[in-house]
Amino acid sequence: MTPPFRADQVGSLLRPPELKAAHERFLAGKLDAETLREVQDRAIRAAIRFQESLGLQAITDGEFRRTSFAGDFIAKLEGAGSSGSLAIKTESGKFAPREYHVEGKLRHARPIEVEGFKFVKANTTRTPKQTIPSPTMLLRGGRAAVSREAYPELEPFHADVAAVYREELRQLGEAGCRYIQLDDTNYAYLCDESLRAVFGEWGYDPAEMPQRFANLINAVLAGRPAGMVAGIHLCRGNSAGKWAAQGAYEPVADALLNQLQVDAYFLEYDDARSGGFEPLRFYPRNSGKRVVLGLISTKKSELEGKDDVKRRIEEASRYVPLDNLCLSPQCGFASTFRGNPITEEVQKRKLELVVKVATEVWGTAA
User: Fold this and answer.
1) Burial of 272 (0-12, 13-18, 19+ CB in 10 A)
2) Could you read off the pLDDT of 318-352 as tens digits, one per residue?
3) Has residue 43 been placed in a domain?
4) Alpha carbons 305 and 296: distance in angstroms, whole number
5) 5 in any annotated domain
6) Which structural domain, as residue segments, surrounds residue 150?
7) Can you give the C-alpha Rg of the chain in angstroms?
8) Residue 9 lies in a domain
9) Among residues 266, 267, 88, which one has the least CA distance to residue 180?
């Protein structure tokens, strides 16, 4: 079985109360790293058993070792860090995404996700899935976010971004990883008029960014280990049930589907903020790529109707052959360790729905 699977998932899961409390204590300096890891190990073993019991084939650690889906990874790249939130206007239900900066030469000084991946691989017989933030996260802020002392010109900076990511993928490959997912918010932000304007303020031409992102990601994936399947998840923001971007995929669809050299696209389609399926007309029909429809919301407790989900899959199949479609939740359940405002029981029912619908539509969840 080759991923993505008919019933797949984006990756993060709600932290159990014991883990969430331990993480809070650790951040407050009241718990040591070794004790936190013991709690994480127990919780991840339980999460693996939970995923397997539902019939999922792609197994993650729930991102239980992270504070946020992107911040921990980027902070472990020598030379990079976080500088707060983007200065954008927020409204009800919306939040300001995190901003990153580069203050020195980028270097992959140590493995980042390798040990965590090994732990999952050792505790499941199914396919371990490794999520990592997209390299485009490091392009936020434009020239002003990159040290002129370290990088007088941006071309060497872009080359170093690709190099540090390639090294992480190489080490993951050596550990046996065959399924990775890049979590990318910037493509989705280009679909939102207000956030497109922010890219202009950073000195970018927003119209050129879809191809620029594709070039960077392609440079990362060009050297990935043989047999490693690469997917990309386009996230519209997911923090405590709030979102950051809205708008149809039209501004990015052509470059995304035809220039980006990934094997699968995890696209959020849980509500009207994502627009319709029409941008999928750019899908290259003979490519063999899969589009994973994120039709199940991880933000809301209400359970989607099975027939409604099937109807939307049928609508999408007008643009992408049914054999090239899969199903997943729209995003993870906990992009930060505090999670979305839903219960573990709702999380279970949502994932069960993904598996059930996939089995009925394609005859298998795998």
Assistant:
1) exposed
2) 999 999 999 999 999 999 999 999 999 999 999 99
3) yes
4) 10
5) no
6) 17-362
7) 19
8) no
9) 266
